[in-house]
Write a structure and sequence with these properties.
Elements (H helix, E strand, L loop, with lengths): L2 H9 L5 H13 L4 E7 L1 H4 L7 E8 L2 H4 L3 H9 L3 E7 L2 E9 H7 L8 H6 L3 E6 L2 H11 L2 H9 L7 H13 L10 H8 L1 H11 L10 H22 L3 H13 L7 H5 L1 H15 L4
Helix pairs in contact: 6-8, 9-10, 10-11, 13-16, 14-16
Length: 283
């Protein structure tokens, strides 16, 4: 199978009906601007959805049509994506918003930042689409992610495809402020080795060389992580509490926020950074 066919087949696999219902409700929040909703992350890979935070990407036609307030559209365009909390039927989620244009661009090798293509080189599901045109654009964008990820690492002579994936993921984890345990890059690949071998074999012939620039990727990625954190204080209710929960879950820490950190989520989140960086909880 071609890479496009593998991506289309994987995106079409069924999900828990509650996940599909939540995706439809998220799309309804943004009306006619909504084009597609993708489900991804740890709840798709290896965790029950009850008691977990589900992860979605909402793809919209354009930012101005997606929001009632111009500042929200401007923030999404300037530092994509915007991220919002969502809850339905006892399930909690967050969803990130990208335009079709940005989703296509951010999955490709023309994008220095790893945030989108590192995620969509991993398994995801296309759980809601407005129409077949939107479905086709979403599939085409996701199909760019695996070649971009592998191309960013470059392949060493004689390197096994799974080792290529593992090394590429290790590089991407180093380019963001991530609350992940050591060995995460290996566990992601080892959880579905057959999947990564098939995708790697299909992607290898069409990889566009974009290796190197990792010092610049790291500097840009970590700066963008801080900027997104700052922006989330205006768009994400309980942002500091969510950040603490995520770090505790991924890094095995036991951070408890003080009352002032809850009242001032931006300052609270930023106040965690020095201690977390020194401890290695985030890298």
């Amino acid at each position: 199978m071609s890479l496009d066919e593998l991506v289309a087949e994987e995106l079409a696999r069924p999900v828990d009906p509650r996940v599909a219902a939540m995706a439809e409700a998220i799309a309804a929040e943004h009306g006619e601007a909504s084009r597609a909703v993708l489900f991804y992350g740890s709840c798709l890979r290896d965790q029950p959805i009850d008691g977990s935070m589900l992860d979605f990407y909402l793809i919209v036609s354009d930012y101005r049509s997606a929001y009632p307030k111009r500042w929200q559209a401007a923030a999404n365009a300037l530092i994509p994506p915007n991220v919002f909390p969502f809850a339905q039927d006892g399930l909690a989620a967050k969803y990130a918003v990208l335009s079709e244009t940005d989703f296509h661009r951010l999955n490709g090798p023309e994008t220095l930042n790893v945030s989108v293509w590192a995620r969509f080189a991993q398994p995801s599901r296309l759980v809601w689409t407005k129409d077949e045109a939107a479905r086709g654009k979403a599939i085409a964008a996701v199909a760019r992610a695996a070649p971009t990820l592998l191309g960013s690492a470059g392949r060493n002579a004689g390197e096994d495809i799974l080792d290529w994936w593992r090394r590429a993921f290790r590089l991407t984890y180093s380019a963001e402020l991530r609350a992940e345990r050591k060995g995460r890059a290996q566990s992601v690949v080892d959880s579905e080795p057959d999947r990564y071998r098939r995708f790697g074999e299909a992607a290898a012939p069409i990889v566009t060389a974009n290796a190197g620039k990792w010092r610049l990727r790291r500097a840009q990625g970590k700066a963008l992580s801080v900027l997104r954190l700052a922006k989330a204080s205006a768009t994400y209710a309980g942002g500091a509490e969510y950040i603490a929960w995520k770090i505790n879950r991924h890094a095995g820490t036991s951070i408890a926020l003080k009352p002032w950190q809850k009242r001032h989520p931006l300052l609270g989140a930023l106040s965690l950074l020095p201690r977390l960086l020194l401890s290695g909880a985030i890298r």
